[in-house]
Structure formats: structure tokens, C-alpha cells
């Protein structure tokens, strides 16, 4: 194929990269320090997956200030890598406290972890104040040789 007929997807944009859909400066190792996205109105969604298995690498209070969900899914289950991160769970409380409206939020952990249990117990009063419910499920899905906890969400 001649060079002038190559598909657009093959062209690169040197000097720019995307982290979570946001343009960043590749010279910086920390995406948070290089964000140059202007603040805008918050985005309201029904369901949001907390990025990177609820790791503190890409999620901070700003995420919860800007992405306002009825349900947040926490999928981290790797304590050695800080997943889920206590700092991210605390960031949910901080971000939600600045919403200015007391909408119901449900947090759905996909695994029962020590971090999640401790956070739940230590911040339960704050969760109630902010209208945050942590969904615990005793339901189990069994598929072939594997079983895992399950939650049912209705809208």
C-alpha cells in the first residue's frame, strides 16, 4: 500500500500519550502530576468500575468528585500490590463529601479482603453520614470447576 494511502490508525502522535483517556506528558512518570484537563461539571453514571483494581496508582479523590456513580465496583484482591487500596476507599469518602447532594451510593466489593473489612468497620459512621452502602454478598456463582462471589444489581 502506498504511504499516502495508509490507514489513519497507523499514524502516531509523538510526544503525547493517554492515561485513562486523558492526555499526559510522557516525560513525567506520574500521570497525576501531568494532568492538564480543565475541571468541568461532574459526570453522573449508574455504574463505575474503580480503575486498576482499586489501586492507588490512578485513582484519587478527584476521580470520585468528577465521576459520580450510583454503584462503584471494587475488584482488587491482591494485598501484595495494594489492591484494594485503603487510600482509594478513603478517597471515595473525601470525594463524595464534596458532592453537595446526598445521593445514595453503593460500593460493591467483588472480594472479601482484610483492607475492605477494616475500612468498612473504621469508617462505618462516615459511610452512613454520606449515604454510602457497602454491599456484601453471600451468593456464589459456580461455573465448571470455579466458584466466586456474586452480586445482583437492579436499576
From TrEMBL:
Coiled coil: none annotated. GO terms for biological process: axonogenesis; dendrite development; microtubule cytoskeleton organization; regulation of microtubule depolymerization. Residues 1-36 are annotated as: Disordered. GO terms for molecular function: actin binding; microtubule binding. InterPro entries: MAP1, RibonucZ/Hydroxyglut_hydro. Residues 22-36 have a biased composition (Polar residues). GO terms for cellular component: cytosol; dendrite; microtubule; microtubule associated complex; neuronal cell body; synapse. This is MAP1A protein. The lineage of its organism: Eukaryota, Metazoa, Chordata, Craniata, Vertebrata.
